[in-house]
Amino acid sequence: MSPRKPMVRPGGRSARVQESVHNAVRELTAEVGRDALTVPLVAARAGVTPSTVYRRWGDLQELLSDVAVERLRPETPPEDRGDLDKDLTAWAEEFLEEMSSPPGRAYIRDALLGDPDGTNAGQCSAYAAEQIDVILQRARGRGQPVPDVETVIDHVVAPMMYRILFRPGPLHPHYARHLVNALPETSPREHTG
């Protein structure tokens, strides 16, 4: 297996190849199921050679991991409901719903399984941190006291991810609300203005 190359947003032909291969993975997963995927099958659907896929992604698991990370990227900023607690609660409920769904769990597994150096896990964590930071910046702009991003990660995101990964079973929105409501009052909150 060749060493994994860092995945950056490529331009030109490289971007077209990535988009074509990612689309092929998604289409074939829907048509034949994830377990039936092979690099030659994906390459044929994408219109590239298997060697192109191996050269760029290394193996099927690393390709699935790359596709999963891209699918886990938020498409829009979190909704602004005008209040920190409402914003965090709505975001946490949506995050929990998406990540604990069967497709969400599969994407998380794929992202982690094809990630020998932790790059994809770090990217997924960065997506959540960026979304949380948007919420906190809005609240800060309204003059609300806010925790830091790491406090929200530790007390809201981490417990949800633990349950999603290691305690399979249904998770209800009230769990997300409970975690947001239980953010420590003693957490560092910045007071503005």
How would you portray this structure in words?
By secondary structure, the protein is an all-alpha fold. The protein folds into 2 domains: 12-58, Homeodomain-like (Arc Repressor Mutant, subunit A, Orthogonal Bundle); 77-181, Tetracycline Repressor, domain 2 (Orthogonal Bundle). The protein is built from 9 helices and no strands. The protein starts with 11 loop residues before the first helix and ends in a 12-residue tail after the last helix. Mean pLDDT is 87; it is low at 1-8 and 186-193.
Q: Could you provide a short overview of the structure?
A:
By secondary structure, this protein is an all-alpha fold. The protein has two domains: 12-58, Homeodomain-like (Arc Repressor Mutant, subunit A, Orthogonal Bundle); 77-181, Tetracycline Repressor, domain 2 (Orthogonal Bundle).
List the helices and strands and how they pair.
Elements (H helix, E strand, L loop, with lengths): L11 H21 L6 H8 L3 H8 L2 H13 L11 H17 L1 H12 L5 H23 L7 H18 L6 H9 L12
Helix pairs in contact: 1-2, 2-3, 4-6, 4-7, 5-7, 5-8, 5-9, 7-8, 8-9
Order of helices and strands: HHHHHHHHH
Largest sheet: none
Radius of gyration: 19 Å
By CATH, the topology of the largest domain is Tetracycline Repressor, domain 2
Task: Fill in the keyword field for this structure.
disordered N terminus; 2 domains; Tetracycline Repressor, domain 2; mainly alpha; Arc Repressor Mutant, subunit A; 193 residues
